[in-house]
Amino acid sequence: MSIIRFPVQDSRMGYLSSTGPRIEAICPQKFVKISMFTRPLVGYTPLMQKQPQTPRVGILLTNTGSPAAPTPEALHPYLHQFLSDPRVVDYPRWVWGPILHGIILRTRPRRSARLYQNVWTPEGSPLIATAKRQADGIRALFGSQYPRPVQVAVGMRYGEPSIARGLRELRGQGVSQFVIFPLFPQFTHATTTSTFDAVQEELATWPTLPEVRTIDNYHDHPAYLRALAASIRETWAEKGYPDRLLFSFHGIPERYRRNGDPYREQCEATARGVATELNLPPGAWQIAFQSRFGPEPWLQPYTDQTLAAWGRAGVRTAHVLCPGFSADCLETVDEIGREARHTFFEAGGQDFHYIPALNDRLDHLQALMEILAAHLEGWE
Hints:
The chain is an alpha/beta fold. The chain contains eleven helices and eleven strands. The strands form three sheets. It has a four-stranded parallel β-sheet with strand order 5-4-6-7, with helices on both faces. Strands 9-8-10-11 form a four-stranded parallel β-sheet, sandwiched between helices. Strand 10, helix 10 and strand 11 (351-355) form a beta-alpha-beta unit. Helix 1 packs across helix 2 and helix 3 crosses helix 11 (362-376). The longest helix has 27 residues, at 93-119.
């Protein structure tokens, strides 16, 4: 029998080699004596004992969304998707359908388009533009401060880029562990649960289900409260102290609260937390709720009525913060920055200032990263 110097798999060692001490074995099929070498070949990848691959983590940042353009044609499909969501409007479909299609979608797109034109930027929708900057900022922070590779994508509940598109983007980047982060600090079924509905709908079409974690609120997270307080201090350093500070949150029907939705309580906790950070006395601040829609009662007091009452009562200066919005959008820039200002002045107020959302401020992005990092613990 001849000695054949041919590298083969060493079942004991798990790698090939071409030099070093030999182990001889007989290949019975060929009756050939084969030399097997046991010193590892530098840089060679094992065949049977491959090094484990670290799963890629993907973060999907979500928000409400925006129409593609400030036109009636773009508003129609956006409003149809939004107002058809049973988490947003939970009336029976046989009641709501004729109202939506017969009245609202015939009139509201034109009016909403005019409002969106007031806030549209060269980058497009302010909400979408800010969401992309938030994703870029969080990705950069993880890249410099986190030991594992992290991908970040954006997905909107309504419109584009959609939640399905964001999930597919992450999957295409090799992500196998997903964190879904709706940027709604206070939980309500109309926003957060609706987001998770869309995630589940997309994942149901995938051949295998990935690991998924969700963040359902961060209304009292210390870093979030500190960032809000810092933004107020910066405004007051520039504009001076107001007579009153109003925390304006997006409203929901009062009926939702009676059915167990914790949204109001979380809004109140956020406002108290910020007031505590600022050492504000009780009479210097208040909460209210904006953006009501439809005939039934929503959470009260209402923002517009509160500001009108302040103006009539002699409050000269009002500052308004919207802590439920992680990025500026139509409801903050136009509804508060323009409409609420007009309401306050009409009632006798003399000075009004809207304090911008946290958007892509560094302290906001660091707070979001801190929240995310806590939810990544335990993943290998």
